[in-house]
Amino acid sequence: xxxxxxxxxxxxxxxxxxxxxxxxxxxxxxxxxxxxxxxxxxxxxxxxxxxxxxxxxxxxxxxxxxxxxxxxxxxxxxxxxxxxxxxxxxxxxxxxxxxxxxxxxxxxxxxxxxxxxxxxxxxxxxxxxxxxxxxxxxxxxxxxxxxxxxxxxxxxxxxxxxxxxxxxxxxxxxxxxxxxxxxxxxxxxxxxxxxxxxxxxxxxxxxxxxxxxxxxxxxxxxxxxxxxxxxxxxxxxxxxxxxxxxxxxxxxxxxxxxxxxxxxxxxxxxxxxxxxxxxxxxxxxxxxxxxxxx
Length: 294
Fold this sequence. Notes:
Layout: E1 4-6, E2 12-14, E3 35-46, E4 49-60, E5 64-68, H1 75-82, E6 90-95, E7 109-112, H2 126-131, H3 146-158, H4 174-187, E8 192-196, H5 204-219, E9 223-228, E10 240-245, E11 248-253
Parallel strand pairs: 5-9, 5-10, 7-8, 8-9
Antiparallel strand pairs: 1-2, 3-4, 3-6, 10-11
Helix pairs in contact: 3-4
């Protein structure tokens, strides 16, 4: 359905093209902080089904924002749409003031998907996967530098995998693979971290390690946008929660109190997700459709 906007003179003006923001959310927030993500009237349809409807969301530099909601509420779709990995069917979104298709500073974004794709092909070592996080910072045909190697080493040490850097990722547990994905994002030294359920299927010790790592990053001024069912050990870090229900934002403010088994550290919540992802410079996994969408 197409809508028209009425200006101050009562005249109708056409809705702007998909992908163009209707408001001046991009740039800076009222406090003067740089706007990292801005979505206005965002809509997404996948396989003929409405997944997101009328999403208005802005995330400023230095914020720690959790996207919460039940399985199927549209959480993962929202963060992928913000990154331009899933196209909008209505509304607009911007990254650091630019439409995703025109955004070039991908080194500023560290994306941690739900799973590490390890099927087929030549087996990769942990170090190789983590080193791929430096690609956005490297010029074409430039050899790996000392700075690249140092960043990879620091990232591996941060997630506690330095002693296994030469091991194949095929040998790792789900929780360890998630730590590799986090290390890959850390190695890129981005300004903003986007994490899609970083604690799902991860043991309690790995969750505590992640909380400690994020605490350090936030203290240094990093922006964090994460998807979760419950916050668990990350609760003390999050000051703002965006709660989705059936593809609509039903709460945007202080995190609601944690309830149920999902809130307990170490709780495993592994579930299938349908993903429709576009091509881009960020690592993104594509899974078969299961009829559910996070």
